[in-house]
Write a structure and sequence with these properties.
With 226 residues, this protein is α/β, with parallel strands linked by helices. It contains 10 helices and 11 strands.
Length: 226
Amino acid sequence: MRTVTAVAHRGDPYRVRENTLPSLRSAFEQGADAVEIDVRLCGDGVPVLLHDATLKRLWGYDRPLAVLSSAEVDGLTEGGVPTLEAALAATAGHRVMIDLPGATHDAVRTIVGVVAECGAADRVHYCAGGETMLAVRDADPAAEIALTWTTLAPPRRVLLDAVKPRWLNYRFPLVDRELVFQVHRDGFLVSAWTPDTRRSMRRLIDAGVDAITTNRVGLLKALRTS
């Protein structure tokens, strides 16, 4: 029987602060098959886990990550913002989806390089829009890619041929049975983000998606077995 892959969005953010090592561990304790993390570069080029461009929302400091060294980030957050290297070590043996908000071509090369250096390339896949995924494909011809798509208009064939994604990654309100059928027919898997209600998750499961990224991975696991 087909099983929907349960991807924990930024870890387990309803229980533990997002994109932290305790949040990633909590997600796996809740039964996640994989975790999604956001990765950006500090001013000294060290990749760390943070969705926003600043520390304001999560850590209370209105300081852009891009002007802070990794040591300064570590000090301001009392070690709360992990490096990508630390996150890959903490998730050893598990699948990881790396989102790349605002990444430049050089940042992508740095992040993909760290993944390779950590020996994690076989369990990591990447998600973002077309330009960023083109950079990932350039940095690693073998990378597994989930091309994030936010419209019902299908990606152009020239983009698909260049990116060579395994997944098309849709905002969940866009997904229905017809879309899933079309994407599967074209040879891709379907992932959806980020439904957090029982009703939305059930609808996506019934539509035939292959993976769901959610902030409530424990609920998704419960629905998967019900």
